[in-house]
Amino acid sequence: MHTTTLGIDIGKRWFHVIGLDTAGIVVRREKLNRAQLYELFATHSPCLIGMETCCGAQHLARLAASHGHDVRLLPAQHVRPFVKSQKNDFNDATAIAEVVRLPSMRAVPLRSLEQIDIQALHRARQRLVEQRTGMTNQIRGLLLDRGLPIPQGLNPLRTAVPEILEDATNGLTPLFRSLLARLLNMWQQTDSAIEELTDEIQSVARASDQCRRLQSIPGVGPLVATALVSAVGNAGTFRSSRDLAAWVGLVPRQHTTGGKPKLLGLSKRGNSHLRRLFVQGARALWVWKEKRNDPLHQWMRRLAQRMHPHKAVCALANKLIRICWALLRNDQMIFRNAAAAA
Q1: First to last CA, the chain
Q2: Distance of CA 325 to CAs 207, 241, 242, 290, Å?
Q3: What is the CATH class of 5-100?
Q4: In whole angstroms, what is the distance from residue 281 CA to residue 237 CA?
Q5: pTM score
Q6: Where are the beta strands (DSSP E) in the chain?
Q7: What pLDDT digit, counting tens, does each position of 9-21 carry?
Q8: What is the rounded CA–CA span in Å between residue 34 and residue 12?
């Protein structure tokens, strides 16, 4: 029988493959290592291939697409309901093969190497930021146990800890003083690494036409612009601005039954890093709502009169990402037109 659809369950070393014919009957069932999977891509006639989005899926998808296959990456939460009986690798691959054939199933777009590189910069920077936050809290806690409180924030730590190390009258033991010096050195190295990655992201944003246009939107800086472009490209895979906002997780969840719609809190689906950046950008912009008189700031002031500030910031983040969608879809559009139409 001719195989028209392949469902592949991705593992670190082994890959479980299920092949379906035009009638949806399983005609292929095998376990392959990485070299055998590469050979399958090269020798099999072009067909529809489905895989779950996970680490390594983008590389396999690009490789299979280079051999003429129609590759679609599926979110894991869309595949899980189709797993029949016990969960195992072959049942997962069967569910993937069945789901990828559905015409209504939306796939994750393939990303270029440039997009993946930018995402790697963001992920490395975010990990370092988390490490710096943890080290900051640890240093403050250790000093607080010795009666030496430090105000919150990064700048107080940059200035206060060196002064504490130089002060010989604060009662610190030689052992703890040596430990504090090592912790401060590690903190400074992490802080410098964050600054270097931030500079690299800013240089990428300056070199990209899409990022430069996105930065014309208030509340969108180099971090937000590069994160959005690396995640969605030109936004052509989203039919409307609301689809993009829903993918990021900035629209209300729905629970409708009996024809009675009910809206809940934010869905928080999709890219959590991108959602956090947009909310942070909206929060920074919200501070200036009384300072300017353009249509966007007028809308913010009207919003502040009827909504809690936290909800209003999320609504502003939703509006910003819709404006970004308009700019990415139309290269000639400028911000003032997009803001008026959003």
Answers
A1: 52
A2: 20, 6, 9, 26
A3: alpha beta
A4: 24
A5: 0.82
A6: 5-9, 14-20, 26-33, 48-52, 70-74, 252-254, 263-266
A7: 998 899 999 999 9
A8: 9
